[in-house]
Amino acid sequence: MKNIYVPRDTASLSMGADDVAKAIAALPAEVNVIRNGTWGMTYLEPLVEVETERGRVAYGPVTVSDVDSLYQAGFLDGANHELCQGLTKDIEYLKNQERLTFSRCGLIDPLSIDDYIKNGGFEGLSRALKLSGQEIIDDVMTSGLRGRGGAAFPTGIKWNTVYETKADQKYICCNADEGDSGTFSDRILMESDPFCLMEGMIIAGIAVGATKGYIYLRSEYPLCKEILNGAISILNEHNFLGDDICGSGKTFDIEVRIGAGSYVCGEETAMLESLEGKRGMVRAKPPLPAHEGLFGKPTVINNVISLASVPIILARGGEYYKDFGIGRSRGTIAFQLAGNIRRGGLVEKAFGITLDDMINKFGGGTYSGKPIKAVQVGGPLGAYLTPDNFDLPLEYEAFSKAGAVLGHGGIVVFDETADMKAQAKFAFEFCMIESCGKCTPCRIGSIRGVEQIEAGNYELVEELCELMDTSSLCAMGGMTPIPVKSAMKYWPEDFKDK
To answer: Model's pTM, two decimal places?
Structure first.
């Protein structure tokens, strides 16, 4: 019986993975089709793997029409074929990464708790159950872990604040409202290794004294919802959730809540409003959510990758994790290559790799083959950078110094055909549509920005950007000027009348 791995993540399914799996299962041979997660090599999906004595041999991208020729060529024995990528572990794209948080993504069946445990799952939780809450938090502080959702706030400090705040109830909220353009690391983690996220949430709950966790999931991720709810049921069955976790006397439960398509609910307080059944609008701070968060109780709010990074920190220690990265940017981050890129996908690397290496060595340059004109890093509110910026190391402080943001790690590439005036206008249009409407600079400023770019009143646009930057209630309006100003700065020729 041959084990054949066919991914079941959203990107692979959109490329026909279900039909490929059915075609392989129908072959005149004894095969066991396992639906794994994705390794993140999106440009090769669906990536079919065959288990051999040498290891897993990869073929991709595979379509239904390729299955017969693969079978005739002897792919069940790992034979050569034009789609053969060699041993999965030796593919350059994957081989040159530092897989810590995403080490199991693509390797395992996402809903096999045996696979998870066999590959290091719950080692972090096992250690955490032997430590005090303060000892767990100290380890997270030592690791240097900062918020991977974009704000880059030190995770240990946030946890410590909740730990020290006295209350009869505390919460852990996972913000899985991944809405930035060109980002998909949260989705890949949830679809490929959901237990990892939940182990991180359980550890967080034990550390700060919280007994209830919520995953706030964007409505556009229906497969994530299915997988996450399946994972919760499995964890309850195996005593990793509930009233007596692993016989420790500790209590923790997790529930998935679905958003309603609002980008601004990626902001933590707007997410809390939505979780409470209200319209997703930004709250004024203080009070901080760590003091008065969900239902007025102390609340830890972290993004998916932040929480999913916790198990390996607890399993191997904060010093181990801290050994990756540079400066104040410690550990690894999942970069996501999208847009006009030859090899799109997820790349987990330690902080410090240059933008040039990420785009050209991993991404292979543009898909069109034309020269790169612009790269936007950090989502729709991130700066547009030129090839002259490609020596920038991918780490928080270097990007901040350059007037840019690393954000959630999304990297979107544009070739020479891009119209940067149109991109600047899009930033205002995006803000106009997604603004929660609570503050005037964001609500009205975005509308005026579109009007003034169309009219060519660029001095007024710059004044408007200054106003939005200094007066908006949250990052939605405050960061919208970043892509606008960078486009005007680096490509002034695109803003001249043609």
So the answer is: 0.96
For residue 360, give every residue at least 6 positions away whose Cβ sits within 8 Å of its Cβ, in sequence order, or none.
Answer: none
Distance of CA 93 to the CA centre of its chain: 18
Q: By the 8 A CB rule, do 230 and 8 touch?
A: no
Number of Cβ within 10 Å of residue 203's Cβ equals: 28
Residue 498, pLDDT above cutoff 90: no
334 within 8 A of 102, measured Cβ to Cβ: yes
Please name each of the domains of the chain with its CATH number: 2-95 (3.40.30.10), 119-322 (3.40.50.11540), 325-415 (3.10.20.600), 420-495 (1.20.1440.230)
Residues of the chain above pLDDT 70, percent: 100
Name residues whose C-beta falls within 8 Å of residue 243's C-beta, 6 or more positions apart in sequence.
251
Distance CA(27)–CA(71), nearest Å, equals 8
State the pLDDT confidence band at 496, using cuts at 50, 70 and 90: confident
Largest Cα separation within the chain, whole Å, is 72
Burial of 352 (0-12, 13-18, 19+ CB in 10 A): middle
The region, left, alpha or beta by phi > 0 then psi within -120 to 50, assigned to residue 242 is: left
DSSP state of 390: T
pLDDT of residue 149: 85
CA-CA distance, 264 to 434, in Å (whole number)? 6
**How far apart are the C-alpha atoms of 290 and 159, rounded to whole Å?**
8
Question: Could you tell me where the DSSP H helices lie in 327-418?
Answer: 355-356, 396-401
